[in-house]
Amino acid sequence: MLHGKVLVAQGGGPTAVINQSMVGAVLESRKFRNVDLVYGAHHGVRGIINEEFLDLTQETSHNLEAVAQTPSSALGSTRDKPDLKYCQEVFKVLQAHGIAYFFYIGGNDSSDTVRIVSEEAHKAGYPLRCIHIPKTIDNDLVHNDHTPGFPSAARFVAQAFMGANLDNSALKGVYIAVVMGRHAGFLTAASALGKKFPDDGPHLIYIPERNFSVDSFLGDVKACYEKHGRCVVAVSEGIHDENGAPIITKLSKDVEKDAHGNIQLSGTGALADLLCEEVKAKLGIKRVRGDTFGYVQRSFIGCVSDLDQREAREVGEKAVQYAMWGAVDGSVTIQRTGFYSVDYKLLPLEMVAGKTRVMEDHFIAESGTDVTDAFRMYLRPLLGSGMPDAFRLRLNSVPKILKR
Amino acid sequence: MLHGKVLVAQGGGPTAVINQSMVGAVLESRKFRNVDLVYGAHHGVRGIINEEFLDLTQETSHNLEAVAQTPSSALGSTRDKPDLKYCQEVFKVLQAHGIAYFFYIGGNDSSDTVRIVSEEAHKAGYPLRCIHIPKTIDNDLVHNDHTPGFPSAARFVAQAFMGANLDNSALKGVYIAVVMGRHAGFLTAASALGKKFPDDGPHLIYIPERNFSVDSFLGDVKACYEKHGRCVVAVSEGIHDENGAPIITKLSKDVEKDAHGNIQLSGTGALADLLCEEVKAKLGIKRVRGDTFGYVQRSFIGCVSDLDQREAREVGEKAVQYAMWGAVDGSVTIQRTGFYSVDYKLLPLEMVAGKTRVMEDHFIAESGTDVTDAFRMYLRPLLGSGMPDAFRLRLNSVPKILKR
Question: Closest Cα to residue A315, out of A338, A292, A340, A343?
Answer without folding.
Answer: A343
